[in-house]
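The authors assume throughout that readers already know how a fold can be written as discrete tokens. A single example would do more here than another paragraph of explanation. An entry of this sort, consisting of the sequence and the corresponding backbone structure tokens, reads as follows:
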Amino acid sequence: MKTVVFVGCYLIPLLMLGQGNDPTFALTKGDQIEDLMLRYNELGEFNGSILIIEHGKLIYENTLGFSDFEQHEPLDAYTPFYLASIAKPFTALGILMMVEEGKIALDDKLQRFFPVLPANYQSITIHQLLTHTSGVKDYFKMKELPRGLTNMQVINWLMATPTLDFAPGTKYRYSNSGYVLLAMVLQVASGQLYEDFMQERIFNPLQMEHSFVLTERNTLPGVIAKGYTAKLKPDEYTLHTYGDGGVFSTANDLAKWSRALTTYSLVSAELMQQAYTPVQLANGQVHRYGYGWDIGNNLEGKLVFHTGGLAGYRTYIERQLATGNVLILLTNTSNPHILEIRNKLVKILDGRPYTMPED
């Protein structure tokens, strides 16, 4: 779906003649984004979905390229992409929902949920898992990630390599394993499988009709955006881990989810503000990660964001809390330009100069 498409051959000459004199012919921000994204697509540097919200209103949405290059199947707005690490804010949200229901406390220790884990895991708190300050080793440090890797295999690996990277709470180090453990905690606290919780408590209520969780217990639907290398070689996603990943979705579904976070329809404002608070380490230092979100600032105030990248998928979501601006980018061709594109989109939203990509 294209929300604003007014750029055509009849408009460009008028702009050339009247630019700087008649504001009637100034390109809207949606027009500028359209030009930018079509140029990136023309250069083979963007294949995927994009959705931009300014001040709470949709100003641009488009899907460009192919879901399957071998079969020349085009992408559309309903084609799910693997989100990779953008699953982490979903897992954190599930934990916070259980906190509000009194089934989890942020200072609960892992011992409450997994008494069989090695002794040095027992004092790790939910807060430390959420903020990547637990010291739990990242399972991507395995010598080789086996095809179809599951959460239980990750936990077995952790039990076989019980040494933590550091004492809990003393450092920040990104850990996919920590979010695998959080997914298992969520299952214990809610009494539901992770994929069922996400479907029944988040996707269905928000009418996220093209979102789902892939685990070893289910299979992929018929149509998804297949992953590719930058040279368009198939780059198959084969893991069955969840909590740290596992979620497939569309840009439009993510916009619905972002709106629910903004209106606090799933979790209270007070608890979400904790989620957007940088973690403080034992030595007093602060790291700009909260509960499932990286945290930044612009001239208007705080923003939260998360990236995702695995196999051929590169994904990005940014929510500017002060302005209501939202940027969502989903790609399936190992896109190395996604943050470059993000920076130009922000300049367009801010009304600042930007450059078009060149050959």
